[in-house]
Protein: Isoprenyl transferase
Amino acid sequence: MFNKLRLWKTGTTTKTLQDQISNVKQQKIPEHVAIIMDGNGRWAKKRKLPRIAGHHEGMKCVKRITKMADELGIKVLTLYAFSTENWKRPKTEVDYIMSLPEQFLSTFLPELMEKNVRVTAIGYTEKLPEHTLKALDNAVEKTKNNTGLNLNFALNYGSRSEILQAVNNIVKDSQTGELDANGITEEVFSSYLMTGGLNDPDLLIRTSGEIRISNFMLWQLAYTELWFTDVLWPDFKEEHLIEAIEVFQNRQRRFGGV
Ligand code: IPE
Ligand code: IPE
Ligand code: MG
Structure:
């Protein structure tokens, strides 16, 4: 167990993180949690550091939150790490972000294996630099038979383009007769998205105070519970994840019913 001794205040009582974990585990844990990890640049700016220092700190946060997701029994953790729009950033920043999967996996892969975590990715990963893709592919391959938490990175992901790609592939498969054009249900459409076999997220978290979706899982979020926090991603701690889940547990999901 990690962080056993860390203390913090909740209301009037002080609880250990471990107590908080066992409490939250008594109710339903969301199966699929997706996070828009935002605020790395502002975290760095506040400290008069270059933006890449924020991305480095953000990577440490990914480790912390992955471990906690595993401990809580979350089945899928999708992390939005790079969008199809993020290429607009200065080259030095993009280059640094593209070095993070290698940095992250070279130090963390043994622990992921030990914890039975399976690494997957969504997004146009074939357009990533070769060294980035190599590190990612290696992790995906090494962890492919693991049966624990699915750590799913959205890398060079954009939802509008994902939807268009699905439409184009559906048209193609209808023309070749592989798909019956009259039988395109929501399930069929979903299966053409990059999230293919995954259930839709139950909970979406966005850090850094921005209240928007930024081209993330537009189809899949139809009935997801949304939780926004002002905390910047590098400052996002285990207790914030627990807080989000507590809020989720107190929401009533109606899916259009009563
Ligand atoms: C999120 O942090 C990381 C990526 C989008 C890659 P930002 O880099 O967007 O941080 P802010 O929003 O500028 O603070
Ligand atoms: C969303 O953050 C993308 C990722 C976290 C990877 P951005 O910082 O790119 O989003 P905007 O520009 O604030 O909408
Ligand atoms: Mg941002």
Observations:
- Helices lie at 17-24, 40-46, 51-72, 91-114, 130-142, 159-175, 186-191, 238-249.
